[in-house]
Amino acid sequence: MNAFDLHGTVALVTGAGGGIGSATVRALADAGAVVIATDRPAQAEIAGARSYRPLDVTDESAWNALAHFIEGEHGRLDIVVNNAGISVTNRIVDTTLAEFRKCMAVNVEGVFLGTRAMEPLLARSGKDRKGGSAIVNLSSVGGLRGAAFMTTYTTSKGAVKLFTKSTAMEYAALGLPIRANSVHPGGIDTGMMDTIYARYIETGLFADEETARATISASHALGRMGTAEEIAGGIVYLCSPAASFVTGSELVIDGGMTAH
Ligand SMILES: NC(=O)c1ccc[n+]([C@@H]2O[C@H](COP(=O)([O-])OP(=O)(O)OC[C@H]3O[C@@H](n4cnc5c(N)ncnc54)[C@H](O)[C@@H]3O)[C@@H](O)[C@H]2O)c1
Fold first, then answer.
1. What's the chain's Rg over C-alpha atoms?
2. What is the number of helices (H) and of strands (E) in the chain?
3. What average pLDDT does the chain have?
4. N-to-C CA span, the chain
5. pLDDT tens, 147-184?
6. How far is the CA of 98 from the centre of ligand 1 (A)?
7. Which CATH number does the domain 10-188+227-253 belong to among 3.30.70.260, 3.40.50.720, 3.40.50.300, 1.25.40.180?
8. Is the distance from CB of 84 to CB of 57 less than 8 angstroms?
9. CA 238, CA 185: separation in Å to the nearest integer?
10. What is the pTM of this model?
11. Quick check: 26 pLDDT over 80?
12. Could you tell which of 156, 192, 257 is best to mutate to test the pocket of ligand 1, judged by most ligand atoms within 8 Å of the CB?
C-alpha cells in the first residue's frame, strides 16, 4: 500500500474556507480521505469536501455537537487539522485586551477545544489504522521566533507549538493511538497575508504593499513566498501512515526562512 494513502479515513479541517484550509481539504481528498470541512458560519461550501459544517472554533458547545454529528454520520474520525486562525499586527501599546483575547480564543482555545472534543473518536479510530490517528495544528514560523508588531500572534502560535508537544506526550504516555504534530509555515500568499500587509502599512513598518511583499519574500532563503499547496503537502504527510513514527514534532515549511 502507498504509505501516503488516506483511503478509509475521515478527516476534519477547521478554517477550511481560507487559503491553507481549502488547499488542505483538496490534498486530503486527493489522498483518499473523506473530508468534513468546517469554517465560520458565514462561509459557503468548500471544493473537495464530502460535507460542510459551520463551526466557530471558539464555540465549546458547537465542538461537542460536531463530535456527535461525526459519530452518527461517519462512525469514525482519523484526522483533525486545527487550521483556523486569525492574525493581529499591531504595536503592543496599541493592542486592546479584546484583540489579544480574541486571538488567543481562536488560535489557542480553538485548538484546545478541538483536541478535547475529538479525542474519544480519534482514539477509537486510531486502533485499527497503521500510524494511528493524527492531529495537525497550524502554528507558524511566528511560533518559533519573535516578529516586530506581531506579539499577540506569535504568542498564540508559540502556545500552539507547546500545546501540540504536550498533547503528543500525553497520548503516548497513555498509549492512545493518536499522533500530534505542528506545522510552521513561512509567508504564504493567502487572505491572511493580505491583512498583514495592510496592517504593516497602517502601522508604518512598510511604506507600501510592494515594499512589504519584496521585503517579506526576500526574508525566505528561496526568495519567495510559499503557496497553500506547499503547506497542504506537509499536512497530508503528517496525517499518513508514512509519518507513523512522527509525533510531537515541528514541521517547518518556510522556504528556508528560519534556516539561518
Ligand atoms: N498565510 C500565512 O502566511 C501563514 C503563515 C503561518 C501560519 N499560518 C496559519 O495557517 C492557518 C491558516 O491561515 P491562512 O493563511 O489560510 O489564512 P486565511 O485567512 O486564508 O484562512 C483562515 C480561515 O480561518 C477561518 N476562521 C477565522 N476565525 C475562525 C473561527 N473563530 N472559527 C472558525 N474558523 C475561523 C477564516 O474564516 C478563514 O477561512 C492559520 O492558523 C494561520 O495562522 C498562515
1. 18
2. 8, 7
3. 97
4. 38
5. 999 999 999 999 999 999 999 999 999 999 999 999 99
6. 19
7. 3.40.50.720
8. yes
9. 14
10. 0.98
11. yes
12. 192
Which residue type does 27 have?
A: A
Domain ranges of the chain: 10-188+227-253
The phi, psi pair for 171, rounded to 5°, reads -65, -40
Tell me if residue 153 is catalytic. Answer: yes
Binding pocket residue ranges, ligand 1, CB within 6 Å: 14-15, 17-21, 39-40, 55-58, 83-86, 106, 138, 140, 185, 187-188, 190-193
Alpha-carbon distances, residue 209 vs 11, 126, 196, 215, 225 (angstroms):
36, 46, 10, 10, 14
